[in-house]
Amino acid sequence: MHTDTPSLMPRRWTTAAALAALLLGGCASTYRVDSQVESFARWTETGTAATAPAALPQAPQTYRFERLPSQREGGGSAAARQTTLESLARDVLAPLGWTAVDGNAPSPWTVQVSASGQRQVRSPWDDPSPHFWPMFGFGVGAQGARFGGQLVWGPMFPYHDLPYYERKVSIVVRDAHSGRVVYETRAAHDSRWNDSPALWRAMISAALRDFPLPPAGVREVIVDLPR
Q1: Could you tell me which of 57, 56, 70 has the C-alpha nearest to residue 107?
Q2: Nearest to 83 by CA among 96, 100, 97
């Protein structure tokens, strides 16, 4: 997981655009992380959605983290990345009355956190095709005034060279005794922001919004981060 400072603007600015961005930057103090979230609650064994308060687990509750083999034994920094994700999830669940236990200590629930990210060359709305625009010149020489023009080929706004990131977070809660999935939630977010723990925390917070009884269907959840 990288911690590079996020970049939201194109590299090549005109003087006017740079000045405008500087003035606006002084007023903006937060970055809005908008995630598309979908959650499913199945706290009862009947397979139907839990709608009655009596069917919901009442806080406080304890759980332990569960890892896939790739999250435990994956090469490189896979294990360290998973530890970071679980730490972020622990921080979000704690105010909800859910406390993580260490190791294999007994607990009624297990929680599995997964995350993925993909770097795109450009955003979906960037136009990769070049454009033509006119350039004209006027000058005075020994043969009198002369006027000329030409069409210059190339992209007017070079947004296509800015990377774009698509990210997803998934959280699954299981009954520790039976292994039955009782809660599943996922959040998706895409932007020009580079990788950062704060961004993943915002997505996990969005995924766990309305836990343990979420509304049905896909919804947008917005979390504001300080710049």
Answers
A1: 57
A2: 100
pLDDT band at 196 (very low <50, low <70, confident <90, very high): confident
pTM for the structure as a whole: 0.71
pLDDT in tens, 170-181: 999 999 999 999
**Higher per-residue confidence, 13 vs 70:** 70
Residue 65 burial (10 A CB sphere; 0-12, 13-18, 19+): buried
Q: Show Cβ contacts of residue 217 under 8 Å, excluding neighbours closer than 6 positions.
A: 38
- How many Cβ atoms from other residues are within 10 Å of residue 44's Cβ? 15
pLDDT confidence band for 4 (50 / 70 / 90)? very low
User: 4-13, 61-70, 131-140 — which one is most confidently predicted on average?
Assistant: 61-70
